[in-house]
Design goal:
The chain is built from ten helices and 15 strands. The protein is of the alpha/beta class. The strands form four sheets. Strands 6-5-4-9-12-14-15 form a seven-stranded parallel sheet, with helices on both faces. A three-stranded antiparallel sheet has the order 1-3-2. Strand 4 (88-91), helix 6 (95-106) and strand 5 form a beta-alpha-beta unit. Helix 2 crosses helix 3 (30-42) and helix 5 (69-80) packs across helix 6.
């Protein structure tokens, strides 16, 4: 685990941590910690106020990115292994999906990413090997994602093999769930132009329900998650022809 990942984990746990305390816990100088915090602040994951490192607004995509960060990074790394040079893929907004996009970009593979996430497009903008196609639509400020009829019109110009998407919960009757009805509708439309839809999520999401039904079990080909998923859940998804890969 990198020092910046250690910082994220500590601040995520305590929500607000003195910079000097971070330096002591990690065995480095306050100057080094401040440099790390500058980089994390630039990425929008944390911010500083009056000598403290603080997690961002809980409604913000940056806050969600910091939740279970290390698990999400492992999941993203696992999913990125399936991406080849010259692939064209589609990625919906979400914290684990953002880390997947970054892993692909870091690999220097010549990949085209279609996304409705302004956050993802900005997050990986400095990587030269990745081509980004941003789907336009109504802009949601907190999630930094485009939704609605314009996205749905734009996405129909494409066909991709793989569509990667996150979820906010699961229910055996309602299927995979989200929290925002318009975003969920947009994601479902994006799913329809892909050969297979792949969920990226940490295992905690299988222990909670979302607010809106998003995908049926029959819509999903694979799930990338962490080893915290129960054997019962894995068996359930396997019985519905959904492959589960744990990182």
């Amino acid at each position: 685990m990198s020092r910046q990942e250690d910082i994220i984990a500590l601040v995520n746990q305590e929500k607000k941590v003195p910079v000097n305390s971070l330096a002591e816990k990690l065995g480095v100088s306050s100057v080094t910690i401040r440099k790390d915090l500058d980089k994390l602040e630039e990425r929008g994951i944390l911010h500083r106020e009056h000598g403290y490192a603080v997690i961002n607004n809980s409604d913000d995509i940056n806050f969600r990115l910091a939740q279970n960060y290390n698990l999400k990074r492992l999941i993203a790394q696992s999913a990125a292994e399936a991406i080849q040079d010259d692939d064209m893929i589609m990625i919906e907004s979400g914290s684990t999906c953002t880390l997947l996009a970054e892993e692909i970009a870091r690999s220097n593979k010549q990949v085209t990413i279609i996304t409705n996430s302004c956050f993802i497009a900005s997050y990986i903008r400095k990587y030269p090997s990745v081509r980004i196609i941003l789907l336009g639509g109504e802009y949601q400020k907190d999630s930094q994602v485009n939704i609605g009829p314009l996205v749905e019109q734009n996405v129909n110009n494409f066909f991709v093999d793989k569509f990667f998407v996150g979820i906010d919960g699961f229910d055996k009757e309602k299927g995979f769930m989200g929290t925002d009805i318009e975003r969920s509708q947009t994601a479902n439309t994006m799913r329809q132009i892909a050969r297979e839809t792949i969920i990226l999520t940490d295992s905690s999401k299988f222990q909670q329900r979302g607010r809106v039904a998003e995908f049926d079990l029959s819509d999903i080909a694979m799930i990338y998650t962490d080893k915290g998923i129960s054997e019962e859940s894995k068996a359930y998804f396997n019985s519905h022809q959904i492959e589960v890969v744990t990182a």
